[in-house]
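Following up on my earlier thread - several people asked me to post the actual chain instead of describing it. Fair enough. Here it is, all 86 residues.
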Amino acid sequence: MYVKAARQGLCAQCGRSSTAKFAVEACVHAPGLENINFPGVFVFPKLTICWECGSASGFQIPNEELAELRKHVRSTTDPKNALNSS
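Reply from S.P.:
Thanks for posting it. Predicted structure:
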């Protein structure tokens, strides 16, 4: 399948000009067994990918979806570790 990508500027990693922007669909899940029933939050960010080094950048979760994640993680996790766990 061929996907037409929007041409972008320089790669932040290698400095070459072979980058393209893609639409991404991702489902972000909260960590831990206590969140097993949380379906996650779907996000649709734009991602810039370098054709030369493979670096991907620009993944940013929109405010509405970020608020949903914060609300859920804080309500089911120890507040001291909620945003620092990996």
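The first helix runs from residue 63 to 76. That should answer part of your original question.
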